[in-house]
Amino acid sequence: MDRDLVEQARRGDQEAFETIVRTGIDAVYRRSLAILGNEADARDATQETFLAAWRQLPQLRDGARFDAWLGRIGLNAARMTLRRRGRVREIPAELLESADGRPTLVAGPSSRTGDRTIDVAERDALRRAFGRLPVEQRMLLYLHHIEGRSVDELATVLGIPAGTAKSRLHAARERLERALEAESGR
Amino acid sequence: MSEQGAGPSGRDPLGDLLRAAIGGGSAAPDDLVETTLARVRVERRPDPRLRRGGILAVAAALTVVVAVSVGLAFQPGPPGTAGPGSSPAVPAPTAEPPTSPPTADFPAEILGLPTISVARALEIRDASPASSGPLAVRGWYAAAPPIFCPYPGDVDALERACPDSASFLMDVPQETVVVRLDGFEGREPVGAALNPRFIGIAGPGARTWPDIRPLPVVLIGHWHDPRSMFCSTSARAGCLEAFVIDAVAWADGRALEPQVAELWEGTPPRSTAADVIAAAERARPGTTVLSLAVVDLASTSKVDPRLLVVPAGDATNLWLVRLLDAGPQASLSAVYLRDGDETVEPMPAWPIVPETAEAIDFPTEVEGLPVISVQTAIEDRAGRAPPTDERMAVRGWYSPWYPVPCPAPTVPISPLVEHCPYDMAALTALPEILLENPEGSWSWHPPMGPSLNPRFIDIDQPTIGEGAAGAVPLPIVLVGHFHDASAARCPAEQRVACERAFVVDSIGWVGDGPAPTASPAP
Fold this sequence. Notes:
The complex is a heterodimer. Helix content of chain A is 67%, strand content 5%. Chain A is mainly alpha-helical.
């Protein structure tokens, strides 16, 4: 990212930051979509990434590290998006059979939990295996194998030593391999 | 495989496979660009001073870790007045008051409340079986030294007494820790003392380890906290006797501003404490803000379980504001705000008054098994070694799952694991209403108190008949087991969750039950 733009945005220039958003949003969205696996979560994580970046930008001391810094914020946003799943859930009214103005359970054989897993099993094996990995491992594999980032760049994004990044990347590959084997054996 | 990252050149087979499987070419939708920009345009940058509390909290946590790692040991003194789980295994020596005790010019009144001694606060606790309302207690505060707190299990925050069980508010100034070359030792305080419980609130931070001198403070707090109803049976009495702090009102000679406990990870708060205080004071004129907590959505139960059930909207953090109405009948209340939004909302009611729940005449035995509570079942799951799939009959209140649309999971999920929509089903210890329709649209929220997510693998879940009002939970006894044999076939990542699942074998008993009544929000 252009260092002048980053510096202007750091000082509070919103137009400069808008240029940063327009330039960088595709990459952030692609990464979020790959890691989170669905569009709604990817949209949330992308927005949160840029909002957090705008808020925290004054704390960034070295504008040259903006891309790695934004990557780390994106990783945290993905984690938070996953955490937010499962809270309060809206229920469309048509899914509830109304009785006296109050909801009534729709029960019957289809309520058995086992039926649900049949749909799930049709997913592509590698996608399933990838989805089994912790968020950080998905991020490592994505950055390295899809974005083509070097180990040094991974280390910068994650804020860890290069040696650690290398070993974690290795561990992520091994875990993906094991997950793939498990998927193939299903 | 190159360590430089092969990129989309085809030289990296794994990269090619991943790109094909999980994508890598999608551009952000046009409306996402505009939506993001619109949010940025109205976004204010936060007050950098708000970060200080978080940094201090991390530093304090590191202090604990360092102290533990060098092998320090601590035996907390018996609190005498203590909260749950605070009794020491070995009686500790008694502290001796210093021959020239420090003195303090405590205020006679603070925020409209008269200050009272610790001894008087204990008298009030023992005299009243119900809530005493807010008390401003003056005394000498000895902070807990850096001790190791074991994982308490699946219990409410009020039951997690460590490390508060090693801190004291005392009428007599004294040091409750003796520092030695090889560590330190706890001492039982002399005179009236209690263990203040700081749940989702910052403690008096004026002195930090190893400064063990007691600090003169006035703490505003209350006995008989409503969340006692969520404590396990064995811990209930201790929970009721916990002195739960609402504010550190005065310390070391000066009145304090409302403290902010920062309990968030990830996205920093957008609102400032000043914004939140101003909004609360506008919405609740005549009340005084005692303290605030800003908490991320994953951590709400650390502060107040009622925050679990509030609609968060787009907010990633919530603010809890504790308020004091110091009128003739002084009372405490709380409100919440979604971060970035100045709308002040009342806290939801607690699920029910315990007496109503206990009025249900559950059977004591079903299918030859003693009927146990949800809390006991959870304790049994945590404490039984080796784990077994022994059947148990658990009484509680059943709320069904509903056929709602769920995002398709990216991984195969065992039927034993909690997942949408089956994780909506709950056997709760108290009759909590999980499906609500406050403003014309139905919504479901997770339980506040102890609960199991029963798994109906081979049988249908209980049907709530027409007219029985599906939102009202059903008193029930479910016969089932943990550690189902099929857990062994779960993927490694899901194994623990599978083993913890309560698999229902039969529905042992179903009652009619009265409609639960919500208790007034404290």
